[in-house]
Structure formats: C-alpha cells, structure tokens
Amino acid sequence: MLKTILAAPVALLALIALFFTTLSMAAAPDAHYRIVTGPERGTYIQIGQDLSKWVAQPAGIDLEVLPSKGSAENVQRMRFEPGVKLALVQSDVYQAYVDMANSGNEEAGTMIRPLRLIMPLYDEEIYFVVRNDSPMKTINEIKDKVMSVGLIGSGTAQSASTLYRLMFGQPIPEQNAQHLSNEDALAALIVKKIDVAIIVAGQPAKLFTDMNPELLQQIRFLRVDPNAPETARARQTYFPATIHVSSYPNWLKEDVPTWTVKAFLVTYDYNLRDTVGNLKRFADSLCENFDNLQEHGHPKWKQVKLELPGLGKGWQYYQPVERRLKACFAHRAAMQAANSPANGAAAPQGATASQKINGRPCTDQERLLLLCGK
C-alpha cells in the first residue's frame, strides 16, 4: 500500500517533467539555414523551395532559399557564406573542380575537397535555342556561331564550354561567347544579336512556360544528330535526353533529343554536434516526406530515386547523412515489399580574360569556376 501511495507522486512528477521538457523543445528556436540554388525562373530555385517546405520545415529547420547565378557560384557560397549549409550543383561543374584539384590547382582543391554529397537528384536538360528562321537544325552546327553560354559562375557556362570543347576539339572563340542571363539571352536571340542561346534547366522550365506565347513562337530548339561525329565525342561526358512535347504542350509539336547533366544536393563535411544533428533530421525528413515531394513538388522530383549510387574518385557522400538515408531507404523498400507481395521486394562522371592567378593569366576553365581574381 505504501509503495502504491509513493508511486503516484513519482509518476506525477515524471509526467510534469515530461510536459515541461516537451514545452521547452517546442519553444526552442528552429535552426536557420540557407540553400543556394539558381536563377529566379530556373528549376533549381523551385527544387530549393520544395526542400524548404516539404523537408526542412517538418524537421524543424527554417531553410531560406537563395537565388544565384548557378553551380560554380553555389560551390563558392557553400564554402564561404555564413549560414549556407546546402547547395545544388551540376555534376559537370563538381567534376571540373575535382579535375582541377587533381591537376594541382590548390584553390580548386581548397574549394571542393571539404564538400560532400547528400544525394543525386535528377537530370537537367541542356537547351540549344535558335530563332525559328535559323538555318541550323542540329546541335553540331553551332561551331563558330555567336552564342550566349550563361553567366560566369553558372552551371550553364560550364556545360556549354565543356560540350563545345568535346564536340569541336577547341574552346569557344572568345569573340563568339556572351555571358548573359537566360532571360537576356532569349531577348538577344529574338532581336538577332546572337545566333544561339544555351540554357540548362529541368523541364518543364518556367523560363519557357512563363514566356509570352508570341515570343515563344519565334524560337525553337536544336536537336542532337545521332550520326554526327560531334555527338559521339559529346557522349564521353553527357547523356542523351529528350525534351518532351508534354512539358510544353502549347508550343512543341514533337519531342526534341538533346543532352542532360545531373543535379546533386551538396553540403559540407560538418562535425559540429548541432549541425550534424540537424542534417540527420533533414535526411530523415527527406526520406519520410519523399512522397510529398513527388506529389506536390516540381515534376522533376518524379525522376529522383531513393538511392545512393557509387561515386567516382574525388566524390564523397556526407557520412552522417549517408548512413541515415541508407537505413531509411532500406526501411521504405522493406515496407513497400511487405505491402506489395505481388512485386516481391548519375553520378559523376563576372571575370575578364585579363585576370591572373598566381601571376599568370587565367585559363577559361578557371574563369568559369570563379577561381580568378583572388
């Protein structure tokens, strides 16, 4: 009897302690982090907004979505801007930093070696846009044409430069390359100041879906020619893709074959306890809320797979998150298998020409990766 009388107050005290602990946890301020994405009307910024709403918020993280010029700028800001804990980066930009670091470029090594991947996301299409009255039909015809290749620091600039060099065995002639934003590039194209606008964006891209229909009818996409020798050379780094009529149903009359590049979610090799804990919660939420991302987010989420494929040399996953994601992916797979008895159970592959680095002129690659003028 005495034990029962004594147990009641103890149990009551335990409940009160739990109540106030819960209140203090609920009242605790969220972690305030930032993610750097891409241009205002690009796909990256929409992906960032989806991550903020459907992943970060349920994990108790206030994730501010920041626009940027693109992938190379994102690498820089991921490394040095306070509060930036996540970034979206194209695979060819990440690989370019790795290659330059391996070739002895100390600044590229400083930039890329502490970065870690959270997971691969989706493929982004590379658009080669010309006027409707252009004689060009295929991508391999762009040699020596005046073109916008994207802003310095953007993933588009890296993709355009790499593709051109692969296809034609030489860099884009400096007098032919203009570094314009996507919107400015399309405007310059329509008024005949350039011949080609190269744009990287996941379909459907707001840049085109929001465009004035009359202006839209003045432009079209170039196609990959599967038989061109330039195509075989581009295939060393990039993968075939298709721009679908369903992405732009009021404009395109047929599918357009093109190239694609992989997008990755990137972080830093953090070891502070609070940051590690927050990113673990982010990883759990990413896995648990993946269905919401696919249902409510940008259509590109439907292409994302819950998997962590093997990586090339110089690429590493962020281990605390990697372990968390693998465990969650395995749990989801087991649950799906249990609920579907009939079914049983891409990784990687503005500045001026007069700028110098370590006393010598910058290369085009160093300019695109923002490694000059330091």
TrEMBL record:
Pfam families: NMT1_3
Swiss-Prot/TrEMBL keywords: Signal
InterPro entries the record matches: TRAP_TAXI
Lineage: Bacteria, Pseudomonadati, Pseudomonadota, Betaproteobacteria, Burkholderiales
Keyword Signal (UniProt): yes
Top-level taxon of the source organism: Bacteria
Signal sequence range: 1-26
Coiled coil: none
Protein name per its UniProtKB record: TRAP transporter TAXI family solute receptor
